[in-house]
Amino acid sequence: MGYLVGVTALWAFSFSLIGVYLSGQVDSYFAVLMRVTLAMLVFLPFLRPSLLRGKQRLALMALGAIQLGVMYTFFYQSFLLLSVPEVLLFTIFTPVYIALLDDLMFGRFTPMYLITALLAVIGAAVIRYDGIDSGFWMGFLVVQGANLCFALGQVGYRRLAADLPPTLAWHNVFGWFFIGAMLVALPAYLLFGNSSALPTTSLQWGVLAWLGLMASGVGYFAWNQGATKVDAGTLAIMNNALIPAGLLINLLIWNRDADVPRLLIGALIMGASLWLNNWWLARRRRALA
């Protein structure tokens, strides 16, 4: 739990740093490439290939490609379409995706998750009820792509860890995770990147360095380690703890003139969807007890 709390505090600043200093100024594909490269460099010196079999290395690389490479590609594009608070609020779906993916892996179907997701969509519409346009909904869908990738990466990492020795030195194998992410980030930049929109100030380079070394390098290692040490319910809750933390940072430091009442109403509706989901799960557990 301590891992997840610490990374939540670390990541709370990332949304605003991207939205304020990078979005619309630095090519998003280059930003993703820099973050993945720096994070990979943190763990490459510790890599011990002999600790994992070939299939296990490929599985960890695939998780990195999805959870980091593809997710970041979606994530950075969302800042071109939405404000920082909107991006934060729309990540509220990640716990639902975690539950749905868990159902898929175990051959179940839970209709209540679809009901709570619909309620959260209504909350999303409230946030922009007087200004919903194609860009808004496209941004909403792009964030959902990021959410799905992040959820799939977490669930997959938990499953992989369950099949590996509990004494495994993860810092000696986690480099494969970032190598997998690089296999997505590098081709994406080469194919779609804009070389004329590179960082132009020391502040932008500094933000990229912080995001790559700390938020990505240290952050993803600690978060995924924490995900293997808690139950799925706790992991789902901690996925949403980032939302109020990130909003608080954004509103207090960078966006004091935001429409706070409307933002809060939308957030409350989204929060109600999660409360309904958790209430139903608790009721089901009592019925099975």
3D architecture notes:
- The protein has one domain (1-288).
- Helix content is 76%, strand content 0%.
- It contains 12 helices and no strands.
- The longest helix is centred in the middle third of the chain and has 29 residues, at 134-162.
SSE order in H/E notation?
A: HHHHHHHHHHHH
Continuous helix count: 12
How many domains make up the 3D coordinates?
1
Fraction in beta strands:
under 5%
Share in helix: over 70%
Class by alpha and beta content: mainly alpha
Give me the secondary-structure topology.
Blueprint lengths: L1 H10 L2 H9 L5 H16 L10 H25 L5 H7 L3 H12 L5 H17 L6 H29 L12 H18 L9 H26 L4 H23 L5 H29 L1
Helix pairs in contact: 1-10, 1-11, 2-10, 2-11, 3-4, 3-9, 3-10, 4-8, 4-9, 5-11, 6-8, 6-11, 7-12
